[in-house]
């Protein structure tokens, strides 16, 4: 992935026409498979100044695939009258210094932090132990297991990195599933019991939180099932997954008035 920045300086009498041209150019741009996303912004301090940010799958895809492809002609026809107004046009790569701010709470915070995940896994594994379908898989479970899985879930949902630093991280978790031959009915029951436990301990039940929570459980349990099959040879090291809100962050009603 590469980011292209184009800086324009467009005189006041051409601004409306410039923005309209870009709105039209955005149609072929959005249709190009090399384009990840784009945004045209206008300076609030100097409204003549615009920055267009386009993320491309790669610089080669931009310069070769897009410029040589079927969408470029239509795109360029719209914006070519403004080529003289370009002050900068460069590709940039990430330095790795990046992140998100705290404007949206993490799923971990929204759920209620470490205590909420501890309550969840305590209740969950009490159910698991009693369950005729999944119980036998956990017959020799370490007494610390519920607390460990609470730390895992907390970390995945944006909490402290304690499973990674104190309990062996991703590779330990993967190894614990190897050879367990988890069946699809057992996977489903595991998810069902965890959702029952979530209700019982009062995890937030707003649609956005539950959609994200279930999304992770579906993803994670399907991987656990695949990794547990007798012939599975999953990678034993991989980055810790981090789960966010996806397309539906918590809804905040606009202030009245
Ligand atoms: C999102 C899905 C899942 C997550 C996040 C998860 C997480 C974990 C973690 C972190 C461990 C290691 C705990 C430790 O460090 O002590 C573990 C072990 C284990 N998991 Fe999972 N797991 C998932 C799905 C499943 C499913 C679907 C099953 C079976 C139905 C399962 C069965 C087991 C078993 C049997 C162990 C070993 C228990 C023991 O210590 O004897 N897991 N899991």
From TrEMBL:
Pfam families: ABM (PF03992), Bac_globin (PF01152). The keyword Protease does not apply. GO terms for molecular function: heme binding; metal ion binding; oxygen binding. Keywords: Heme, Iron, Metal-binding, Transport. Residues 2-92 form the ABM domain. Heme binds at residues 148, 172. This is Truncated hemoglobin YjbI. The lineage of its organism: Bacteria, Bacillati, Actinomycetota, Actinomycetes, Streptosporangiales.
């Amino acid at each position: 992935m590469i980011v292209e920045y184009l800086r324009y300086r467009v005189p006041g009498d051409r601004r409306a026409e410039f923005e309209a041209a870009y709105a039209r150019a955005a149609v072929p741009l959005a249709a190009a498979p090399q384009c990840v996303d784009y945004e045209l912004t206008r300076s609030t301090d100097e409204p003549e100044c615009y920055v267009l940010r386009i993320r491309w799958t790669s610089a080669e895809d931009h310069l070769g695939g897009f410029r040589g492809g079927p969408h470029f002609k239509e795109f360029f026809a719209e914006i070519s009258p403004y080529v003289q107004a370009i002050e900068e046009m460069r590709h940039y790569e990430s330095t790795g210094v990046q992140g998100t701010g705290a404007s949206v709470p993490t799923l971990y915070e929204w759920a209620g932090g470490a205590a909420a995940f501890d309550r969840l896994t305590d209740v969950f594994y009490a159910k698991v132990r009693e369950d005729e379908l999944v119980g036998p898989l956990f017959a020799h479970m370490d007494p610390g297991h519920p607390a460990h899985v609470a730390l895992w879930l907390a970390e995945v949902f944006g909490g402290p990195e304690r499973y990674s630093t104190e309990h062996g991280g991703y590779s330990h978790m993967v190894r614990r599933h190897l050879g367990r031959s988890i069946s699809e009915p057992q996977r489903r029951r595991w998810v069902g019991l965890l959702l029952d436990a979530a209700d019982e301990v009062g995890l937030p039940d707003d649609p956005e939180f539950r959609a994200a929570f279930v999304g992770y459980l579906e993803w994670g349990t399907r991987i656990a099932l695949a990794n547990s099959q007798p012939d599975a040879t999953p990678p034993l090291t991989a980055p810790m997954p981090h789960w966010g809100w996806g397309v539906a962050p918590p809804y905040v009603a606009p202030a009245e008035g």
